Each structure stands twice: as structure tokens, then as C-alpha cells.
Amino acid sequence: CWYIWWHRRQVVHVEEIQNPPRSAVSIAAISTNYALASMKSAVMNNTCKKPAEGLKMINVDASYDAAKGVGSTGAVIRDAAGGFIAAAHSYIPHVVDAAMAEAFALRDGLLLAQQIGCNRVEMEADCLEVITTMNEGGFSATAAAPIYDECCQHWMDFAAISISHCNRECNLVAHELARQALLAKTSFVWVDDPPNSILQFLV
Asked: Which of 8, 78, 112, 121 has the fewest C-beta atoms under 10 angstroms from its C-beta?
């Protein structure tokens, strides 16, 4: 059903869609991925960590308003000493569910890193589905599948990259960025100078 919805969305936005035979192949592939995804697992990490020397840490998170069908993302990049490098948040006017918002957050974190020239990074998120999906090759049987496909394309552009789970306490900066974007319905990027709203969480 979500695949049909996705095609409908593409038609509404005057985007090119696949022909019926190719769509059938895609749906079959997604069904297979779903069976594989049901057998996957991820390891939860309850400790905060800094990236290895020479790498940057990217934390990402998302917010979702089910009543309005909207979402937002937050991403922050820090160096090995924990120093602020850049941050971004983005408002998303059309989101199917929380899982899709989390996938958008991953994508936006990757885009932020590329925007400022970081190509050796460690990523963290508090959404286990994001961690499992990317560590298993980016296969998804959800409405977020096209977003994960995009993430995989960006992923290959990095010289070194990994992703792991962090608890919510370690992801407060990204969470606050996403929360602010949802409230203000805004999108913005900060480089070198963090917004006042996250200063207390950077300490």
C-alpha cells in the first residue's frame, strides 16, 4: 500500500514514475527485504562516546507529529574533543510516520557533513531501526525505502563512515534541533557558531 502511495505522491508532485512491470519488481524486492528485516537485530549502546582521532561525530534525530503528518530533523557535527563544528535542522511538511522522519534525519546528517567537507565520520542515532537498516546494507521494507536508497548513495561518498546506537541522553542536541524545527517550521544550517537553543546541551 505504501508503494502505491509513494507513486501517487510522485504524480502529485509531477515527478517521473516507474512503469508497471518495474514497479512489480520493486514491490517483490521490498517484500523480500521485509522478510530479511524481520530477522535483523541491533545492539543498543547506553554510553556516550567521542569519535576516534581524525573522525567527526554526527548525531541525528527526528520529531514527528502524527496528527498533522509533519516531521523535522536535527543533526549536529562535533570533533574528537566534543567541539561544535556545524548543525542543521529541517522541517518536513509531508511525513508518513516516525520511521520515515528518522530516515530523513539520517539523510540530512549525511548532507550536512558533505556540505562542510567532512568525509571521515562516525554517526550516532537513538533509533534502532536506522542503525539496523544501514548496518545491513540499507534495505528497508517501509515507506522510508526511497530515503534509505538516497542515504546509501551518499554513504558511498565518504572515505570512512560508520553508524551506531546512542541513548537519548547522548542525543539531546540533535533532539532539540529537531524539536525547534517542528515548532518553528523552519530549516537552517549553522557553521562554527551554534544556535543559543542548544548551548546548554553542548556542555
From this structure: 8
| Residue-wise pLDDT tens digits, 86-115 | 999 999 999 999 999 999 999 999 999 999
Contact call for residues 113 and 58 (beta carbons, < 8 A): yes
Phi and psi for 169 in degrees, rounded to 5? -65, -30
pLDDT grade for 22, boundaries at 50, 70 and 90: low
193 torsion bin: left (phi>0), alpha (psi -120 to 50), beta (else):
beta
Helices 145-155, 128-135: crossing angle, 10 deg rounding: 60
Give me the DSSP letters along 78-141. Answer: E-TT--EEEEEEEEES--SSHHHHHHHHHHHHHHHHHHTT--EEEEEES-HHHHHHHHTTS---
185 Cβ partners below 8 Å, 6+ apart? 91
Cα maximum dimension of the chain: 54
